[in-house]
């Protein structure tokens, strides 16, 4: 993958620029510490890149990669999970009206003490990988209803000029109230207030979420493949 744009290989770009402090490195491969995120990357999916990632894994755990399809792995690797992943960028700021944030006017910043509930909500709703220290990657906000964490959203990957909106999810008991849209509106406002452009990743088959993101001014940029891999090397 010969990236010519910061978002072509966003995990690698993040781990070699704005989030280098979170990187575990071995030659041509990088990954976040597992307790932060399973995401990892290399400059390009070459044999040398996979060899470096194998040494980084050291036979333990798995790594989630964002690759261009079709995906071909070298011998000695196992795919544990894969799914088409759409990358979208928020290019139409005027799509966010003052009413967008109305349902989230009582939003709160989520802190260390909220992590057990955040992990429980992401485990229930499956918005993507979320680990015990993922919250350290950016600002995470939420909405409580009846003492329950009803919805949340936050920031994950940071590359020059861009910040990723991630972990957008709503408890099944509170869907249909516009909570996710409201939280995203707050985050987009904050990101654009820093002079950056919001982007996100969503499963290609999640039509409901994609429609919401389009209403919020996000447009499709590229189709990639989320591939969770494990090296058989010991």
List the helices and strands and how they pair.
Blueprint: H1 10-16, E1 23-26, E2 29-32, E3 40-42, H2 47-57, E4 63-67, E5 77-90, E6 108-109, H3 115-125, E7 140-145, E8 148-159, E9 162-170, H4 179-193, E10 197-203, H5 207-215, E11 218-231
What is the compact description of this entry?
The protein is α+β, with helices and mostly antiparallel strands.
Strand content: 25-35%
Structural class: alpha+beta
Largest sheet, strands/sense/barrel: 8 strands, mixed
Form type: globular
Spatially, the strands of the biggest sheet line up as 4-11-5-10-9-8-7-6
- CA-based gyration radius: 18 Å
Q: What name is given to the CATH topology of the largest domain?
A: Aminopeptidase
**Number of discrete domains:** 2
**Share of helical residues:** 10-25%
DSSP, total strands: 11
Termini separation (Å)?
27 Å
How confident is the prediction overall: mean pLDDT? 92
- Per DSSP, the total helix count is 5
Could you describe the 3D structure shown?
- By secondary structure, the protein is an alpha+beta fold.
- The protein has 2 domains: 10-86 and 224-231, Gcn5-related N-acetyltransferase (GNAT) (Aminopeptidase, 3-Layer(aba) Sandwich), CATH 3.40.630; 87-221, Aminopeptidase, CATH 3.40.630.
- It contains 5 helices and 11 strands; from the N terminus they run αβββαβββαβββαβαβ.
- It has helices spanning 10-16, 47-57, 115-125, 179-193, 207-215; strands at residues 23-26, 29-32, 40-42, 63-67, 77-90, 108-109, 140-145, 148-159, 162-170, 197-203, 218-231.
- Strands 4-11-5-10-9-8-7-6 form an 8-stranded mixed sheet, sandwiched between helices.
- The longest helix is centred in the C-terminal third of the chain and has 15 residues, at 179-193.
- It is globular and about 50 Å long.
- The chain starts with 9 loop residues before the first helix and ends with a strand.
- The model has no long low-confidence stretch (mean pLDDT 92).
């Amino acid at each position: 993958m010969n990236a010519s744009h910061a978002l072509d290989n966003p995990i690698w770009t993040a781990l070699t620029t704005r989030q280098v402090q979170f990187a575990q490195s071995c030659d041509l491969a990088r990954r976040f510490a597992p307790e932060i995120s399973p995401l990892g990357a290399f400059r390009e999916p070459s044999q040398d890149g996979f060899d470096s990632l194998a040494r980084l894994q050291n036979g333990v755990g798995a790594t989630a990669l964002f690759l261009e399809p079709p995906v071909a792995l070298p011998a000695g690797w196992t795919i544990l999970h894969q799914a088409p992943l759409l990358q979208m960028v928020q290019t139409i700021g005027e799509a966010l009206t003052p009413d967008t944030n109305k349902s989230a006017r009582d939003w709160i910043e989520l802190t260390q003490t909220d992590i057990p509930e955040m992990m429980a909500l992401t485990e229930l709703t499956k918005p993507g990988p979320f680990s015990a220290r993922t919250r350290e990657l950016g600002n995470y906000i939420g909405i409580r209803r009846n003492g329950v964490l009803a919805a949340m959203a936050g920031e994950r990957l940071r590359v020059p000029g861009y910040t990723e909106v991630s972990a957008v999810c709503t408890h099944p008991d509170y869907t249909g109230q516009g909570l996710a849209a409201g939280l995203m509106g707050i985050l987009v406002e904050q990101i654009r207030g820093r002079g950056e452009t919001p982007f996100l990743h969503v499963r290609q088959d999640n039509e409901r979420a994609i429609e919401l993101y389009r209403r919020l001014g996000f447009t499709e940029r590229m189709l990639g493949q989320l591939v969770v891999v494990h090296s058989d090397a010991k």
